[in-house]
Amino acid sequence: MDALDALHLRSSVPKLSGPAPSPEMLENIYKAAFSAADHAVLRPWRFLVVKGDSRKRLGKLFAKAGVANDASLEPTAIEKLRCKPLRAPLVLVCISSFKPHPKVPEIEQDLSAGAATQNMLLAAFAQGLGAMWRTGSLAYDPIVKNGLGLSNEEKIIGFLYIGTVDGGTKQLCEADIQSFFQEW
Ligand SMILES: Cc1cc2nc3c(=O)[nH]c(=O)nc-3n(C[C@H](O)[C@H](O)[C@H](O)COP(=O)(O)O)c2cc1C
């Protein structure tokens, strides 16, 4: 796919199924992260690849966090948390991994990690895959962060759900693009 088409046409796909991306597709996705703008080339990111039965382990962790936050959680709500990672054959946990640097504050490093994550979304779309960037309160939950082995300097900035498009893709939102750009 043409680069501008990917940039102009990408949209999120909430309904995903198998098969998971091929190893070659995955390599293209990983590689795309590394062309993100990155002050001082700190590579302030890392990604956990969660597939197969590991998704069930992630679901258990989500459920554990849910129950710890609300002991009265209904069994159906617990089950919903447990099933979240099963919504796609592959989940990438995207982590902003702060590296202290005299010229690069944390905000810039978070932005770089976000740019790397967006690049991966685009690389998935460009290869005909479906993908969606999700967070929710679980991304900021200390039990989830701890269970995934994050250090104190690290943040989960997203769960990228990636798979095969299951159903249609949605219409792109029309925006009054010009109104977001003012000559100054
Ligand atoms: C940091 C971040 C977190 C997000 N978290 C969620 C989420 O938890 N649930 C959700 O439905 N959409 C979430 N979104 C939005 C979707 O990924 C998506 O961008 C949105 O539905 C608009 O669709 P589009 O990407 O096709 O324009 C998040 C987006 C970003 C950038």
From TrEMBL:
A Pfam family: Nitroreductase
Alphabetized CDD domains for the sequence: YdjA-like
EC top class, as a word: oxidoreductase
Cofactor binding note from Swiss-Prot or TrEMBL: Binds 1 FMN per subunit.
Keyword Nucleus carried by entry: no
Cofactor: FMN
Protein name as it appears in the record: Putative NAD(P)H nitroreductase
Species in which this protein is naturally found: SAR86 cluster bacterium
